[in-house]
């Protein structure tokens, strides 16, 4: 979604030039609503310009992600504070408009397959982050982690949260990327749990509070 026709045409051209034909633009428009009313409603990835018609739409990112959509933000606003705010809102990743077409195509493809991807500008924002050396999680990321830590499978977490399993994997992978970027990798589930408890993102007593749908049928959706 971009309110400049030239930008939309440019992205269409970039995708069409990919020698592997890995991605297809199925809808484009100048507003979020115009895209989601049509074929874009079923898109694997939404590429969103952060400023539409002079209005910053950071507040819409969390809404779109809560619906289970994969959102990639593509913007000329490249300051670290904006990039970190976009990621905190739940976007899968951020691409600066100054980055080249290969980064754009590669990002769309990797996000569509629920793999983490960190373009250069986003990596720079992580490195310049002066906030305390623990990642900031969105509410949905924290909820997914907590349910997963309670010995639920990712499929079960997805059912509990009303999301797709792919979206749950994306949330968990994104937390791993955040830890890796501050030099505290957590490659295993046990390591990730230890990091989360150490940083106060998850309380140890919360891990024991889960009741399954089988044990509590009234809680099932």
Strand order in the largest sheet: 1-4-5
Q: Categorize the overall geometry.
A: globular
What is the CATH homologous superfamily assignment of the largest domain? Response regulator
Instruction: Provide the domain count.
Output: 2
Determine the N-to-C terminus distance: 33 Å
Q: Summed up, what is this model?
A:
It contains 10 helices and 5 strands.
How would you portray this structure in words?
This protein has 221 residues and is mainly α. The protein has 2 domains: 5-128, Rossmann fold (3-Layer(aba) Sandwich), CATH 3.40.50; 139-215, Arc Repressor Mutant, subunit A, CATH 1.10.10. Helices cover 47% and strands 8% of the residues. The chain is built from 10 helices and 5 strands; from the N terminus they run H-H-E-E-E-H-E-H-E-H-H-H-H-H-H. The protein has helices at 5-17, 32-36, 58-66, 80-88, 101-112, 120-128, 139-149, 154-161, 165-181, 189-198; strands spanning 46-49, 51-52, 55-56, 71-75, 93-96. It has a 3-stranded parallel sheet with strand order 1-4-5, with helices on both faces. The chain has a two-stranded antiparallel sheet with strand order 2-3. Strand 2 and strand 3 form a beta hairpin. Helix 7 crosses helix 8, helix 7 crosses helix 9 (165-181) and helix 8 packs across helix 9 (165-181). It is globular. The chain starts with a helix and ends in a 23-residue tail after the last helix. The model is unreliable at 209-221 (pLDDT under 50).
Give the topology:
Layout: H1 5-17, H2 32-36, E1 46-49, E2 51-52, E3 55-56, H3 58-66, E4 71-75, H4 80-88, E5 93-96, H5 101-112, H6 120-128, H7 139-149, H8 154-161, H9 165-181, H10 189-198
Parallel strand pairs: 1-4, 4-5
Antiparallel strand pairs: 2-3
Helix pairs in contact: 4-6, 7-8, 7-9, 8-9
């Amino acid at each position: 979604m971009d309110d400049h026709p030239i930008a939309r045409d440019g992205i269409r051209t970039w995708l069409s030039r990919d020698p592997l034909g890995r991605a297809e633009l199925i809808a484009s428009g100048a507003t979020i609503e115009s895209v989601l009313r049509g074929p874009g409603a079923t898109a694997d990835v939404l590429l969103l310009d952060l400023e539409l018609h002079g209005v910053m739409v950071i507040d819409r990112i969390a809404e779109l992600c809560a619906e289970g959509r994969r959102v990639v933000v593509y913007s000329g606003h490249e300051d670290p504070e904006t990039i970190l705010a976009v990621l905190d809102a739940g976007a899968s990743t951020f691409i600066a408009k100054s980055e080249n077409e290969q980064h754009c195509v590669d990002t769309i493809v990797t996000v569509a397959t629920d793999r983490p991807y960190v373009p250069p500008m986003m990596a720079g924002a992580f490195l310049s982050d002066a906030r305390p050396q623990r990642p900031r999680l969105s509410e949905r990321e924290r909820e997914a982690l907590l349910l997963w830590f309670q010995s639920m499978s990712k499929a079960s977490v997805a059912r509990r949260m009303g999301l797709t399993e792919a979206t749950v994997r994306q949330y968990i992978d994104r937390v791993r990327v955040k830890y890796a970027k501050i030099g505290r990798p957590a490659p295993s589930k046990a390591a990730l749990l230890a990091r989360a408890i150490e940083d106060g993102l998850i309380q140890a007593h919360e891990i024991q509070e889960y009741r399954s749908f089988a044990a509590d049928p009234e809680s099932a959706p």
